[in-house]
Known about the structure:
By secondary structure, the protein is mainly α. It is 80% helix and 2% strand. A two-stranded antiparallel ribbon has the order 1-2. The model has no long low-confidence stretch (mean pLDDT 78).
Amino acid sequence: MKENKFKIAFLCLICYLxxxxxxxxxxxxxxxVFMYGLVVGFLFSPYLLSKSKKWLFFGxxxxxxxxxxxxxxxxxDVYFYSTNIFELIIHFIVIMYLFQHITSAEETTIDxxxxxxLGYFLLAxxxxxxxxxxxxxxxxxxxxxxxxxxxxxxxLYYSFTTLTTLGYGDIVPVSPVARRLSGIEAATGVLYVxxxxxxxxxxxxxxxxNKQN
Length: 213
């Protein structure tokens, strides 16, 4: 089970992404369960993958803060800014943990490949969250704006098409901040594939040579 930890995490994320759109508009309670399940799984993922007590502490503190902020739910700018910035920071920390694991690995395994895939998907989700937060804060604008704002999952759709440099063009960044962040995401997507896939291939080549010797 330990050797397949990233495989399980990646497959769970794929299942969630496939299932969520079918229930988002039909069952409010089920949608809430899915959403909080994703939050809990995401915050505790470093602990589940590393079994380190410091990451367990991180997950407990983070989910406690999320629950408290969700319960008090103040309608003011301070609450709005603090909660959204906190979510972005937490997402960044989890992604950095995953990247650190990938870059510090000494050999190429199937689970490391799944870890790289998981990191790629989490990048898209992280940028999607950043788009949503910055749009809500008034720093970003997309066209057509109503299409994006009416459905949170349009941010994820736009993020994936940008990260993969596919870019259908049905959602277009019009504000300077949105354009710059979109450009950064596109460059990140290209560099991620080049750097991490290159590293995996390089590690595999070294392992093959060592086995032959």
